[in-house]
Each structure stands twice: as C-alpha cells, then as structure tokens.
C-alpha cells in the first residue's frame, strides 16, 4: 500500500505494537467505596480496594469477581471525557497513584538523571529523510525542545520549506494530543489530518488548505485516524468507529460538504471483523480491508471513479488471508491460501481477481515467512523472515531475476516502505541492530547501489564497540529452540552477578525486532544484560511459531519465556532472582502469568497496560476488541473447553497466596485496548493474596491511553520511571 505520513514517533522505542480488548464481568448494585482521597499519611500504606462481590455463570461454572466495580458502567463516555469517571473509581486510582509516588520518592533524583540521559540521546532538531512525490518532497521534523512533530514539504529539487502542520501549536494547552495519519491529496492542494485529544483513539478528521495553512469547514469526529484520497483531489475515504470503538464502516466524503452528506460505501455487520482502508502502491485502487486475526477480505474501488461501488476481490474464507497490490492489468496477491502458512505470492487478472484465477508466482517455502509485498512499475519487493532474521528480496518483473540485499551482523532489524511513488527504481529501507543506530538507505533496484541517507545521531555519544550483541537459543519444555537476543557492555561480567531486563510479547504473530534502542542503553550502562525473548505466539520463526503459541497452545508462550530466563541464568548471563521481566499489552498478560507460575525466577515485573483479566475480557462481547480477538484466544462464551483453558492461565484468576516479585503495573484511563480496570483489578487482587512485602505499585495515567504520554519528552519520563523501578529492585538505584 502507498505511504501516508503516519506520525509513529520512532523515538518512543515501544515494543507495544498491538493491544488487546477491554472486557470485564457483570456488576452487582453499586456500593460506596472504602477508598477516599489520599492524605499524606495514607500514601505510606498501600490502598485496599473494597471488595464487592459479583458473579457470572458460564457453562455451569460460577466466576466470582470482587473488583468488577472498578469497570465504569459508562466506560464509553469516559473514553471521550475522562472527567465522567465515577468518583469512587477515580478516588481509588488516585490513591494508588499517590502511594506509587511515595514508594518511589527515593528514586526521584535517579529518575531525573535517567530522563536527562534519555533526552540526551535524542537529536532534538531531528527530521525524517524527505519522501519525494511529484513536484514536492514530504517530511516530518522536530524543533529543539519541541514535544511534537511538524509536517513539512519542500520543492522536490530543494527550496523554501512549507510547514503543513505544526503539532506543537495544535497541542497547546492540551493534556494529551496525538497527531495521526497525514495524507496530502493527489494534486498536492489539500492535506487530510486527524488527531486524538484524549488518548482514546477516537480521531477527529480535518482537511487543510496547503497554500493558506487554514483548515476548511470539514470536521469529522470518531474516525480511526487514517484517510485515503481518490485521484480527483476532492474525495476522501475514512473509517468510522461505532459507540463500542469498533471500526465498522467506510465513508466517502467530498471536501466542502457536511458530515451528514457522507456516503457509507461499506458496512461490516459481523462484530468479529474490523475494517480498514488503503490504496495500492500504483495509486489505481482504493482498497477496503476486512479482517480478524486469521481471515481477510478485500473490496476495491477505482481511484479514478470514486463514486463507483466497491467490487469484491475474493470472498472471505475462514483461516485464509490475502493482501492485494496492483500493476498494469494484473493483481499481485500475498496469501496463505491452499496450505501456504508462511505465505506465497500469486497473480490474477485485474478484471477477474477471484481465487479460481490465482496462479502461483512465488511459491510457498516452509519456514520462510513473507511479511510484506511492495510493487513498483518494474520491480517487486518482498520483506521476509527466516531463522528469525529478516531480509529484503527484489525481483525484476521483466525477467524474474531476484537478488537479496545482504547484511553482516548476527542479529538485526529491517524495515522497508513503499513511499509515495510507483514508477521509481529507488527503494528506501532502514537497518539497525542492538548496537548499531538506525540507518536509512536509498537502494537503486537496477544498479544495486546503496546510498546512506541518514544515520541516527546520538548527541550524547555512542560507540558500538563498547557493546556486545548476541543471539542465543534457549531450550523450551518440548525441545523447541527459543531465540533470545542479548545486548550488554563488553566489560559486563558474565558470571551470574549481572541483573537482566528480559522483554517478551508473544501474541498476534507480532515479532519483536533486534533493533537499536537508545533507552536500553541506560540499563546496559549500569551493568544490566538487556534481553529480548522471541517466544512462540510471534512469527519470529515463521507462521508455525505463531500457531504454536495461540488458542489451545497459548501455554507455550509462557513456558518459552520462562525457559529463556532459566537459560540466561544457567549460562551465567544473570542469575535466578536477578531478572526484571517486562512486557506490555498482551505482553503484560505474559507478565501476569509468569509471576504466578515462577515468581522466584524474577526480582521484579514491569507490566505496561497489561491484559491480565483475560477471561472476563473474552466473556464481554460489548467491549471493542473482544469478538475480533476470539480467533486469537478462543471464545469462552460459546466453547466450554476454551473457557476452561483461558481460566487456567488468566493472570487475575490464578493469583494465589504465595510470595511475588516486586511488580509495577501501568495503565491508561482512556485506553480502549486494555482498559484501565484490568491492571487496577489485578493489583487489588495481588494486594489481597500475596504473602510477602515486595513492592506492588499501580500507576494509572489519568490523561492518556494505550501508548502512554503523547509528547516525546513526556514519554521519556515514563521510561525513566520504569527504569528507576528496575534499578531500585535490582539494588542499582
């Protein structure tokens, strides 16, 4: 698909790529909370949430929930306006925040030091490499001291810069502001942009005149954030979110008309499927994508005839996914159809794209996962992963001759984007490793010349030779080899004395890259071994690696992570009881499970927006992501076996009377993916049952959602807080 300037904030260094759904159990009539506004004295003692018995019965099994009251009945309204949160719930969350602040007071100076370190590694006046499109080149850049980016353009061959959007001005006096997709019209006269001002991921879409810098009257609330222009420069398509935050309708909007006049061109009736909209790299087709985690369907609109009805490419078939690109009179389709779990590429006539006309172009190879396909006028580019390492393969369409771009390090990360242009020989890609800062290259697909366009600067200094990166293999319970990527200082003693930060995710087929992180250096420079466990549930070793870590095989995700920790201890990179485990979102669920199963392996747990109330969440089909999540976790409403399997690992449902490592749980009040009440209920349950005095902290961002603070420096303060917790627990504070 063609590029849109999507402000992804690479400086976040977040591994949270995809979240889970917000769900919870039923409530009994409201009772008055025991928690009141905290005094200074009360902040020295951990808060205790009142127990209000609630119960639900499924498959003849009664599930009790003492803390279900923390789920606001008006959660949809709270997503839009956090001020509508019930007073008793707010009081409890604020009491926990006050206790956390008090418990971490002794790290305040350390937090400030860490923040300055993290900030010092960011080039404050940074900018992206301009992306050419016709007469202009588009980019994002930051000014010194600015929290948010500016979207700019210059004449293609150089000249005076025009600021299209300044997110710092737009964010002025707002507690939260996130700029999302920014997409210019094909004639370069208009810019569609959207923003979220609550952290709830309800985006308001606006249209700006590029010449005057003024927004037009167009203002469309409650969209998913992305837009796609038709080729007339006056029509755009967007996805609307319903009251339960589900992207279910695609609308066509004509610039200058009212929202009420917009035409719904597609509506998805099945709540288990989400809807997206994009454009082929050729610019010829608007593509409406319907998908869950294992099935997809695509409808196409001719971008030159935007009022035409969408045409179905191929009807959805459970368990089959496909993604379409276009060139000339042919569609190129990336799919797992017909027993190709690691995907293959097929072609079909543009006027007859149904499955009956699919012909293999790049055959399926087990263990070689094709991650993406990008098509140009004369070349096809595919990003693949094999043996847990990525690679870029380029095919010349005239004769089918292929070549691979080679890299030398033991573990690394690659990224390749389509850019704006179709008729070009230049491919732009990025490369980094745990020790090598990100480098952006332009690669001529004909001459095979590689031109370095940008290398990530670390203003405070970085010498790759001071660090070591390695890839080791841990043996899982069933004999599988689990890759673990390591980063540590070359002088770090590997005799079991070093503390370790072990990161894991392991869901949705998302693979965690072995990429450069300036944030990790603050731990490594203080003697930590920084490790990433590439566990099942991701696609690090192909689709089978994912399939072996979901639904009825989900336990493999957890045992793989434990095996990784045990291996690092056995090989003396660290020791049992010296590991700080970290994970966010679905990775936060992993944190909850391993804390229950092997608490003595870990000194501490950092669980960011943790999906820890899995069973209650999957039982509540009113919450945004629950129906689309059933292919990932199983449907405990319809399937008793799925109910019992999830119940056996769901973190909240398996908290027991035992000693637990120190735990920091972080949530966001307006998070639509992992709702604030999941970490709140988890911490309340742990406080009730754990048998030791190890630190247990809940920190809820009352002004943000799933991704935390929106400004680049505000986010670094959150990282500094997490690292201060890790250092405190490791005795390094």
TrEMBL record:
Gene3D superfamilies according to UniProt: alpha/beta hydrolase, Prolyl oligopeptidase, N-terminal domain
InterPro entries: AB_hydrolase_fold, Pept_S9_AS, Pept_S9A_N, Peptidase_S9_cat, Peptidase_S9A, Serine_Peptidase_S9A
Superkingdom of source: Bacteria
Domain Peptidase S9 prolyl oligopeptidase catalytic stretches: 515-732
GO molecular function terms listed in the Swiss-Prot or TrEMBL record: serine-type endopeptidase activity
Pfam short name (any one): Peptidase_S9
Record's keyword terms, sorted: Hydrolase, Protease, Serine protease
Biological process (GO), any one: proteolysis
Span of domain Peptidase S9A N-terminal: 47-456
Xref: PANTHER family: PROLYL ENDOPEPTIDASE-LIKE (PTHR11757:SF19), PROTEASE FAMILY S9A OLIGOPEPTIDASE (PTHR11757)
Family per record: Belongs to the peptidase S9A family.
Protein name, as recorded: Oligopeptidase B
Species for this entry: Breoghania corrubedonensis
Record lineage: Bacteria, Pseudomonadati, Pseudomonadota, Alphaproteobacteria, Hyphomicrobiales
């Amino acid at each position: 698909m063609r590029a849109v300037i999507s402000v992804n904030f690479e400086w976040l260094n977040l591994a949270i790529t995809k979240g889970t759904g917000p769900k919870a159990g039923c409530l009994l009539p409201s009772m008055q909370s025991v928690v009141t506004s905290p005094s200074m004295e009360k902040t020295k003692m951990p808060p205790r949430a009142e127990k209000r018995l609630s119960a639900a019965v499924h498959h003849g099994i009664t599930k009790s929930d003492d803390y279900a009251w923390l789920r606001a009945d008006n959660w949809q309204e709270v997503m839009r306006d956090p001020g509508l949160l019930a007073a008793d719930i707010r009081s409890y969350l604020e009491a926990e925040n006050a206790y956390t602040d008090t418990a971490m007071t002794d790290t305040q100076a350390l937090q400030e030091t860490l923040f300055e370190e993290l900030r010092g590694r960011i080039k404050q006046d940074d900018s992206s490499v301009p992306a050419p499109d016709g007469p202009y080149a588009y980019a994002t850049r930051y000014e010194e001291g600015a929290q948010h980016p500016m979207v700019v353009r210059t004449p293609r061959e150089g000249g005076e810069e025009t600021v299209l959007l300044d997110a710092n001005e737009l964010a002025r006096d707002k507690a939260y502001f996130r700029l999302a997709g920014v997409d210019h019209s094909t004639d370069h006269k208009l810019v569609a942009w959207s923003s979220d001002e609550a952290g709830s991921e309800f985006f308001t879409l606006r249209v700006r005149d590029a010449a005057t810098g003024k927004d037009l009257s167009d203002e469309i609330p409650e969209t998913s954030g992305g837009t796609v222009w038709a080729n007339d420069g006056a029509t755009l398509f967007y996805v609307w979110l319903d009251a339960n935050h589900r992207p279910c309708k695609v609308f066509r909007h004509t610039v200058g008309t009212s929202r009420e006049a917009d035409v719904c061109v597609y509506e998805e009736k099945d709540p288990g499927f989400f809807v997206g909209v994009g454009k082929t790299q050729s610019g010829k087709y608007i593509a409406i994508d319907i998908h869950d985690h294992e099935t997809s369907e695509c409808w196409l609109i001719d971008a030159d005839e935007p009022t035409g009805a969408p045409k179905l490419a191929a009807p959805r078939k459970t368990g089959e996914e496909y993604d379409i690109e276009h060139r000339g009179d042919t569609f190129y389709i990336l799919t797992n159809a017909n027993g190709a779990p690691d995907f293959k590429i097929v072609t079909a006539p543009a006027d007859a794209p149904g499955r009956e006309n699919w012909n293999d172009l790049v055959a399926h190879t087990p263990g070689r996962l094709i991650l993406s396909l990008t098509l140009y006028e004369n070349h096809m580019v595919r990003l693949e992963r094999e043996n847990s390492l990525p690679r870029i393969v380029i095919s010349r369409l005239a004769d089918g001759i292929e070549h691979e771009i080679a890299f030398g390090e033991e573990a690394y990360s690659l990224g390749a984007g389509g850019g704006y242009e179709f008729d070009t020989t230049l491919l732009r890609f990025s490369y980094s490793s745990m020790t090598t800062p990100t480098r952006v290259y332009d690669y001529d697909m004909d001459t095979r010349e590689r031109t370095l366009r940008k290398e990530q600067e670390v203003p405070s200094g970085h010498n790759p030779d001071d660090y070591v990166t390695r890839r080791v293999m841990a043996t899982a319970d069933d004999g599988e080899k689990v890759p673990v990527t390591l980063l540590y200082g070359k002088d770090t003693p590997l005799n079991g004395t070093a503390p370790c930060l072990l990161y894991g995710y392991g869901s949705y087929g998302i693979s965690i890259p072995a990429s450069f992180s300036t944030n990790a250096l603050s731990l490594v420079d203080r003697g930590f071994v920084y490790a990433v466990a590439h566990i099942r549930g991701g696609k690090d070793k192909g689709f089978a690696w994912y399939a072996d870590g979901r639904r009825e095989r989900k336990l493999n995700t957890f045992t793989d992570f434990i095996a990784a920790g045990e291996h690092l201890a056995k090989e003396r990179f660290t020791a049992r009881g010296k590991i700080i485990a970290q994970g966010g979102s679905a990775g936060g669920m992993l944190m909850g499970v391993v804390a229950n199963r092997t608490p003595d392996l870990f000194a501490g747990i950092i669980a960011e927006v943790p999906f820890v109330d899995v069973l209650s969440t999957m039982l509540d089909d009113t919450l945004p992501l629950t129906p689309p999540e059933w292919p990932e976790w199983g449907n405990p409403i319809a399937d008793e076996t799925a109910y019992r399997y999830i119940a056996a690992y769901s973190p909240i449902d398996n908290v027991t009377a035992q000693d637990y490592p120190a735990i920091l749980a972080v949530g966001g009040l307006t998070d639509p993916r992992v709702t604030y009440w999941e970490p709140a209920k988890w911490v309340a349950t742990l406080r009730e049952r754990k048998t030791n005095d190890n630190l247990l902290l809940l920190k809820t961002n009352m002004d943000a959602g799933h991704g935390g603070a929106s400004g680049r420096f505000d986010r670094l303060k959150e990282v500094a807080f997490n690292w201060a917790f890790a250092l405190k627990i490791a005795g390094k504070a």
